[in-house]
User: What shape does this take?
Amino acid sequence: MINLNGIAALATKYNVYPDRLVNLDVECWVSSRTPPDYLTYNEMLFRLKNVKSLGADGCFIWAGGVTNPPSLNSNGTGLPDWAQAILDFNNNNCQYRP
Assistant: This one.
């Protein structure tokens, strides 16, 4: 169950005010493989590009503590491929760099 109070608290913490949250859509992104698996680099990048092409200024991405299986660290960074896609997308498309 999604805790919407927690989302509001994070929005305030990161200076994103509720009146600017145009669309609050909670979605689970998993691969289309059977059984579902973590997203590959290209699958995550595709989704991020689609979110941007739809006009979103940004999005929140939550990942649980078990989302870093060593078998998916094929990019040599120690990060799962989907996380590397987020960093690369941010570096190439966003003004904000944490």
User: Anything to note?
Assistant: The chain has a mean pLDDT of 70. The two ends are 29 Å apart (CA to CA).
